[in-house]
Design brief:
- The protein starts with 7 loop residues before the first helix and ends with a helix.
- The protein is built from twelve helices and ten strands.
- It folds into three domains: 113 residues, Acyl-CoA dehydrogenase/oxidase, N-terminal domain (Butyryl-Coa Dehydrogenase, subunit A, domain 1, Orthogonal Bundle), CATH 1.10.540.10; 107 residues, Butyryl-CoA Dehydrogenase, subunit A, domain 2 (Beta Barrel), CATH 2.40.110; 144 residues, Butyryl-CoA Dehydrogenase, subunit A, domain 3.
- By secondary structure, it is α+β, with helices and mostly antiparallel strands.
- The strands form three sheets. A four-stranded mixed beta sheet has the order 1-4-5-8, with helices on one face. A four-stranded antiparallel beta sheet has the order 2-3-7-6, with no helix packed on it.
- 49% of the residues lie in helices and 15% in strands.
- Helix 5 runs antiparallel to helix 6 and helix 7 packs antiparallel against helix 8.
């Protein structure tokens, strides 16, 4: 499909991003899957290539480009020609914005240069063992002490949990209200900050996911991110971009799965002819092509809305919901069209299928996305009259 969202400079940048992924990421995929994480050096190389935080201020080493389409290009090329376990999108587009948007000038001057160069790898710690998507039920706490805070608690399912040098940690600072949460920057090496085991997952084998523990971690006052007690609002605001970032990645992997399958059905023979010559295959591929193109147009429009500072929370939820559900359907259809080969890990489509299962869960489950969208159209049970009230 022709995409009118990109200008010539974006396509030129795409060539740079694609060349990097093919040269520095793709050759290491099998090694990274076996060791359960990518090498730290790939972040440094990405920084040297200008692929980390293109939006960052020039004084911190960034390009200062206020155009999310460049980040979209990087995400798409990593999904197509790199490796889904290389969480460059988490680093640049999910966590770094917490520092850049909420941090003081001193915090930005201290942290952003290393973030942009790739010397400092990022993670964000929200999810807890017993809370899941219910951030208001968070138990990790930070108690004020002279000169700072004392942090206690545990987080789980933390992407980049082992590699991360800086972790943005959400903790309860006001036990009297469900939304009394603040954000802190916890640094590698702080006494009491410990990494747990690397968690074994169904997919994303090269992405390190871990447990994090905070045992009387003394966090200095200057590592409080933003205003005390405003963490819940910050998380909600930045989840808008996070969900769009996720949707961009889902769509890129779905498009890649389609391309792999199209090539396969043209070559694979059955009953003396390519399986792509059968009507069922043509119809399946045609339906996938149509849904992929329609979803891509919506995602591209949401990127433009984000650029214009007009992307609403419910639109980002729609985007994430649609992309993750289309991706899941496409992956299933593509595995089916591969037949027995689709079940073999030596074929990329098999690995993509298991990698994609998380898409309908992280950054908010499909069920949560439906709640957000439903409430946005006036179907909020908290505000709708009960039968008794209506009478």
């Amino acid at each position: 499909m022709r995409r009118l969202i990109f200008e010539p400079e974006h396509e030129q940048f795409r060539e740079t991003a694609r060349a990097f992924m093919q040269a520095e990421v793709a050759p290491n995929i099998e090694k990274w899957r076996e060791q359960g994480m990518v090498d730290r050096e790939v972040y440094q190389k990405a920084g040297q290539a200008g692929l980390l935080c293109t939006w960052a201020d020039e004084k911190h080493g960034g390009a200062g480009v206020d155009d999310f389409r460049f980040e979209q290009v990087i995400i798409e090329e990593n999904m197509r020609h790199g490796d889904i376990g290389f969480y460059i999108n988490l680093h640049s587009d999910l966590v770094a914005p917490y520092i850049a948007k909420l941090g003081s000038e001193a915090q930005k001057d201290r942290f952003m240069p290393g973030i942009v160069s790739g010397e400092t790898i990022l993670a964000v710690a929200m999810t807890e063992p017993s809370t899941g998507s219910d951030l208001a039920a968070m138990r990790t706490s930070a108690v004020r002490r002279e000169g700072g805070w004392v942090l206690n608690g545990a987080k789980t399912y933390i992407s980049n949990g082992l590699l991360a040098d800086l972790v943005v940690v959400a903790a309860r600072t006001d036990p009297t209200t469900r939304h009394g949460i603040s954000l802190f920057v916890v640094e590698r090496g702080m006494p009491g900050f410990e990494r747990g085991r690397r968690l074994s997952k169904m997919g994303l084998k090269s992405q390190d996911t871990a447990e994090l523990f905070f045992n009387d971690v003394e966090v200095p006052e200057e590592n409080l991110l933003g205003q005390e007690g405003q963490g819940f609002r910050y998380l909600a605001e930045l989840l808008v971009q996070e969900r769009l970032v996720a949707a961009i990645g889902f769509m890129a992997t779905a498009q890649t799965a389609f391309d792999l399958t199209l090539e396969y059905v043209k070559e694979r023979q059955a009953f003396g002819r390519p399986i792509g010559a059968f009507q069922n295959t043509r119809f399946k591929m045609a339906e996938m092509r149509t849904r992929l193109d329609a979803a891509q147009v919506f995602i591209d429009q949401c990127v433009l809305l984000l650029n214009a500072r007009q992307l609403a929370a419910h639109e980002a939820a729609e985007c994430k919901l649609l992309a993750s559900e289309v991706e899941a359907w496409v992956m299933d259809e593509c595995v089916q069209l591969h037949g027995g080969a689709g079940y073999m890990d030596e074929y990329r489509i098999s690995r993509m299928y298991t990698d994609a299962r998380i898409s309908r869960i992280f950054a908010g489950t499909s069920e949560i996305m439906k709640e957000i969208v439903g409430r946005s159209i006036g179907l909020d049970e908290r505000k709708m009259p009960t039968p008794a009230q209506s009478a």
